Batch of 3 targets.
Target 1
Amino acid sequence: MRVVRTIPEMRVVAERLRRRHRTVGLVPTMGALHEGHASLIRTSASRYGATIVTIFVNPLQFGPGEGYRRYPRDLAQDVRRAAANGADVVFVPGAPQMYPAGFQTAVEIGELAARWEGRSRPGHFRGVATVVVKLLDLIQPTHAVFGQKDYQQALVIRRLIQDLNLPVAFQMLPTVREPGGLAMSSRNRSLSVSERRQATVLYRALDHARGRIRSGVRHAPSLIAQMRHMIDAQPAARVDYVAIVDAKTLRPQARLHGRVAILVAACVGRARLIDNLLVEVS
Ligand code: PAF
């Protein structure tokens, strides 16, 4: 497996891979690779001729006080993990390469990015969209692979690929969970043992709402209230938002119909966690 550190080298390597293989998968990450990332890399490696993993902690998507400097970084372990799961290339650009002095261009997404995460983290999706467009442009993969855990991010990226006519197929893969249901996330590293146990309430609340929807409940506000109540019962947890929304537009629904996404964001200790489930309302 090859580690590439510069943009010019990445362009050459990516072009060579595209000539050699019919399909090239891209798995963009910020490092601190866990089993969720490993599963994206494995799936990409099993489906496509070559897989490129990018590791870049993107300063543009962190707001003030959101822990850009604190974000876990362990390149040696990430490189081992990417290789062990079938990556052919790991691209690790530095921030000055991605955003040289004078950089002032950004990709702005409309309504889809305005709610939920976009509201709690102003500028976040602008940063995500900008770096993803840069990576897609310089690597030009045939397929780009994202996890459902960051559901709104996945929709935003799918939208921008469509809107900008980027020649890449978007793939969203299911969330990987720990045995108690906690969604795998680099942020879980900062949870204490007790916080980790309490954080499983996010999945339990989602699963509760999904169960109630499947058994016929259609009134979203009462489900949201029940979920909030469950999460608030954990002393270390503080809800940011709970929502049940149209799975395509992310607009809230009062009376549930069609395909819906149940979304949750909460702080548990110092970690801000998000999770979601998709449900087909019959
Ligand atoms: O999901 C992430 O790790 C990041 O938001 C991404 C897509 C790699 C962009 O920096």
Note: The CA atoms of residues 61 and 127 lie 4 Å apart.
Target 2
Amino acid sequence: MKFGGTSMAGTERIRRVARIVKRQQDAGHEVAVVVSAMAGETDRLVNFCREANPLYDPAEYDVVVASGEQVTSGLLAIALQALGAQARSWLGWQLPINTVEAHAKARVDSIDADALIAEMQKGVIAVIPGFQGVSEKGRITTLGRGGSDTSAVAVAAAVKADRCDIYTDVDGVYTTDPRIVTKARKLRHVTYEEMLELASVGAKVLQTRSVGLAMKEGVRVQVLSSFIDDDAPAADTIPGTMIVGDEELEGMDMERQLITGIAHDKNEAKITLTRVPDKPGAVANIFGPLADAAINVDMIIQNVGRDKGETDVTFTVPAADLARSMDLLESAKEAIGFNRIIPDTNVAKISVVGVGMKSHAGVASTMFKALADRGVNIVAISTSEIKVSVLIEEDYTELAVRVLHTAYGLDAVEA
Ligand code: ASP
Ligand code: MG
């Protein structure tokens, strides 16, 4: 079981979490619980580090920011004990959760779960702070923002859990953002692949890395709400959304739609370079410096060359990296040989995702036609086996999502 920051924000909420956990144990499960810091706490701790020294030592940053989860794990153990349950906390270095690579963005390498499993079998509820681990050198590490989801999946894999229930402030994964489309439906199942695409294109329910890990380790993940009454349906009845493998889904979900979900992402920026030489190596000259700076380029279009052997190249980068990208390109202006550089942050990426499109034609054309009918202009397109994304003017985001939700037959029918 994993509980996020809003579920752990304050004693009252931690008591509710304790009741939910105790109920699972009473239902006959052996349970391990992974917790986040209280909502807002990690931001607060990060700010302390920045104030102390903007060029802080990442190893000491980890010591500071990992503390939020230490507090909530201890508090949850106390709250569980108050309900008469046996519970204890296991910090990342105590289990241990071994991590590799850099501070502030460590990756889980292995978890020694023997002691944990032995205690769980004796009926002791294990409470584990998410987000943290320990390095080869014995120092505290953290997994990157939102990393508690990944901790939970890693622990679930290590104890060979039947299920990893991720309790959060929404009650599942929806066909699209319910704040935009009131007829959005909660999905009963999503495949790992679909969830990976949805997570990476702006449906921020789970940390993307946690979904990749769940897929690799075959951990069955349920996303469900922690904001429930004591008599709400038990987690075992699967009130939330199950994220599972393709094979498990086949034949299970008869009403499967061609498209599973529609995501939007306003955190993209578009850059156009005009009059780039239309010759081998030109594009490599553009994207080399960006790659070296670890800037993630997403959509790319190169126009048909005009006469004089020149072409325009347009691509997108995360909006947060726009200034840095512009800088790098300006410095490489001579090497690349472009005329003008035109930035645009007034764009949004809309993506339709579904494993069904692997075996169906016409998914993209439905999208283009639905948008055209409403006068929405498409400025860039990219596709994968299970996703079609278009870049449009940001002001049309909500309209586009609504129109596509209807076009693919995803609207809930009125009950
Ligand atoms: N507390 C950490 C964060 O806010 C990790 C997490 O909650 O997943 O990023
Ligand atoms: Mg989170």
Note: The chain has a mean pLDDT of 93.
Target 3
Amino acid sequence: MTELSYREPEPKIIAGVKGDWEIVIGMEVHAQVQAKSKLFSGASTQFGAEPNTNVSLVDAAMPGMLPVINAFCVEQAVRTGLGLKAAINLRSVFDRKNYFYPDLPQGYQISQYKHPVVGEGEVLVDMAPGVARKVRIERIHLEQDAGKSVHDMDPAMSFVDLNRTGCALMEIVSMPDIRGPEEAAEYVRKLRQIMRYLGTCDGNMQEGSLRADVNVSVRPKGSREFGTRCEIKNMNSMRFIQQAIDYEARRQIAILEDGGTVVQETRLYDPNRGETRSMRSKEEAHDYRYFPDPDLLPLEIEPALVERVRDSLPELPDEKKARLVTAYGITEYDAAVLVAERANADFFEAVAKGRDGKQAANWVINELFGRLNKEGHGIGESPVSAVQLGAILDLIGSGEISGKIAKDLFEIVYTEGGEPRAIVEARGMRQVTDTGAIEAAVDEVIAANPDKAEQAIAKPALAGWFVGQVMKATGGKANPQAVQALVKAKLGVE
Ligand code: ADP
Ligand code: MG
């Protein structure tokens, strides 16, 4: 397994009135487990279903119902743990976390407290080629999601939709290793990327499949101690995460520089006003009266299961990036773009195999992704297949078409489809390499412009004008190198 070397980025510094400050961030990311049914019931997890249609008697907390653990969700948590290079705890315990909320009919959430299923791991957060922050993972525990209260459908009433109640969540808790708003957003992006590779969470932030609680504190630059933190709840956009951290850090700095103290509390970010607001004072573990759920036995995982999952792990983004750099000679920057999604990297490799890797990366990233982005499409919707793009590169490689014609050809394949070589034949796009034909065109242009020819003989730099004219006369199909050589020869310049 290859690894790229990297150095850690500088922490983000905020200048206060009295000195420089550093931001310290730790995150609790809630990732919905990609699974067909819920953590303790067989009800569907389908997003966007009619309200209250995906609710079993267990989810509705009818008296006497018993939870039954969904083995697939456990396997997904193990898979996520292994993907984050974490220790798997073969024995973990489900606890009841007691609180009241209208969309929580049980009156408690089944979660894991002292004994989570996944222990310590780590994530490399890429900030630039060769620059990455290592963020340690403290734990991942499995827990139930709550339902949704709907407050904006009626002026006088609120509604409850229990479809999400009981869906499996993985709470991924980081150590306070993140040092700035951009790092925080990149951390979430990296987690999302890894889980999408693993197929354990779809990472859809609009649908709420990925939400983050962000813990923020500040300390004087260079200080080793941590300050008091505030937790900003339920962030579901990378942009808002950054804005909220920036606002919150400045708020805390202003308090501290004024001689005050930061009160540990839970806050909410209001994107319309661009500020965080106090929601409630910080709740402590004892407020929840945690105790082991008497309906559930401790969760014991067979070592063989862990090994089976480990063996089935795909190549993950960091390793894929390192391999693409060495195997295809592409830049780390290009490799990072290509591995953003597994399907993108697969497409690139299908094009690059047996061809010039740099050229393939250039065409896949700049031409294809560029074109797809314009229409808001992903690689899955690409009208150009890897075989078609590969055929275009082969036509360039053999000198049958110029790079410029190749772009026209790409556009034809993109909009109309078709086999590239057949299109080149049918539309006469083949590059003219026949020197006789090019020579005739050069002679014609020189004869028609005797004064320009004289100038070019006196000042050879002007010969380029003739090259341009000949290219125009041949509809861009003449081989540019051949034209250049012939123009120079005819004019007798170097
Ligand atoms: P609690 O049990 O109160 O939720 P944890 O110790 O589990 O607290 O920490 C919750 C999150 O807060 C973790 O992601 C952790 O990294 C982060 N965190 C802890 N201390 C700080 C701090 N001083 N500044 C920023 N984040 C912190
Ligand atoms: Mg915690």
Note: Residues 238-257 form the longest helix (20 residues).
